Amino acid sequence: MKRKRKDQDPSQNKESSQGKEEEAMPEDPSQAFEEIKRLRKENKALEEKLTRLMADLTNIRRRQAEELLRARETSMERLANELLPIVDSFELALKAGGDRESIMEGVQMVHSMLTDMMGRHGIQKIPALEAPFDPSRHEALAVQENEDVPHGTVLQVHQEGYEMGDRVLRPARVVVSQNPNKEENPENTGKDPDSDAPEE
Q1: Cα distance between residue 18 and residue 178, in whole Å
Q2: β partners of residue 124
Q3: N or C: which terminal CB in the chain sees fewer CB atoms within 10 Å?
Q4: pLDDT tens-digit map of 1-28
Q5: Strand partners, 99
């Protein structure tokens, strides 16, 4: 076992630790001061840059909101311009009067104009009559027993449905066939058929 040296001067250890502290401290205090000034200046520049970026983001959001509002107004203006001729046709038909046949011709003309306008905007009528019942596009109001058509066939359309692309704007409200020889009923959109519908 090694013995500790008793002749070691404690003052030497103290001088050694003081030397290390002196090495850790900068030789020139002015250099540390200049470094602090540089870091503060850099920090201020970063804060100013962040402020400008936040202002830019606010301006971008404001411009987007304004552009969205203008786009909506433009769309409404275009729709109004397309509706005005149809309103004019209605007014002419009301002023003209005449017999029942001429009134029906006027109504059919207006209906055709409306249908054409919706078609230009991608709005189409949902096929329903004599088509297989589709719960995603049809709403069953009632079921009727009918052995002459396949089970689940649309027999009547109470209200036309419309879709735009893949999105259903309004389901067609229909009456659906029910084959008494089948146990299952056609699916519906969640609304129960009329209470007058025959039960199995």
Answers
A1: 102
A2: 163
A3: N
A4: 455 555 555 555 555 555 555 555 556 7
A5: none
Residue 51 CA to its chain's centroid (Å): 32
Q: Given the structure tokens 């200049």, which residue do they identify?
A: 34
Nearest to 128 by CA among 113, 142, 140, 145: 140
Sorted by where each starts, the structural domains of the chain and their CATH numbers stand as 11-121 (3.90.20), 123-178 (2.30.22.10)
Burial 152-172 (b: 16+ CB within 10 A, else e): bbbbebeeebebeeeebeebb
pLDDT in tens, 103-162: 788 788 888 888 888 888 889 999 999 999 999 999 999 999 988 889 999 999 999 999
The model's pTM is 0.54
C-beta atoms surrounding 139 within 10 Å: 19
- Cα(91)–Cα(110) distance, rounded to whole angstroms? 11
Residue 44 has a CB neighbour count (10 Å cut-off) of 10
Q: Around 132, how many Cα atoms within 13 Å sit in the side-chain half-sphere?
A: 4
CA 80/CA 135 separation, integer angstroms: 34
Rounded to whole angstroms, the Cα distance separating 24 from 13 reads 17
Partners of 138 in the β-ladder:
172
